[in-house]
Amino acid sequence: MTTARDIMSRDVTCVGEKETLADAARKMAELNVGSLPICGEDNRLHGMLTDRDIVIKALAQGRAAADVPASELAQGKPITVGADDDAAEILRTMSQHKVRRLPVIDGHQLVGIVAVADVARALPDRPVGDLIDAISE
């Protein structure tokens, strides 16, 4: 049985909840990624921040990215999977919430990220195709 721990990317960089959207954008550019987890000082996950969030929820509203803390965009409870959750649970969670990346939690600690690409490399074509259909609606 393939688990999140088996296929996740372990090299996870967070943006701190007190860092600004400008800081987050710089990290995204350096890492060549489109999203980052928002972590508190306790290293717990507070949410996910995407490049689209920065543009739509801040810049398009006329707000300066250097003045907005990342924590302001960490709304609601983050959608996650457990490190030992199986591939079926990963697919179900991604499909249900229409997300392309899931933070992986072990206890209360962020230990990785599972992206659609990770799922595609680990699973047969059919379930992955169904997932792409579900999140693209």
Instruction: State the separation between the terminal residues, measured CA to CA.
Output: 28 Å
Content of β-strand: 15-25%
Dominant shape: globular
Number of helices in the DSSP assignment: 6
Low-confidence stretches: none
Q: Nearest-angstrom radius of gyration? A: 15 Å
Biggest pleated sheet: 3 strands, mixed
**Structural class by helix and strand composition:** alpha/beta
Number of strands: 6
Q: Report mean pLDDT, rounded to a whole number.
A: 88
Numbering strands along the chain, what is their spatial order in the largest sheet? 1-2-3
State the share of residues found in helices, binned by percent.
Answer: 25-40%
What is the helix/strand order?
HEHEEHEHEEHH
Describe the structure.
The chain has 137 residues and is of the alpha/beta class. The protein contains six helices and six strands, in the order αβαββαβαββαα. A three-stranded mixed sheet has the order 1-2-3. The protein starts with a helix and ends with a helix.
Topology at a glance:
Elements (H helix, E strand, L loop, with lengths): L3 H4 L7 E2 L4 H11 L3 E5 L5 E6 H7 L23 E2 L4 H11 L3 E6 L2 E7 H7 L2 H11 L2
Parallel strand pairs: 1-2, 4-5
Antiparallel strand pairs: 2-3, 5-6
Helix pairs in contact: 4-6
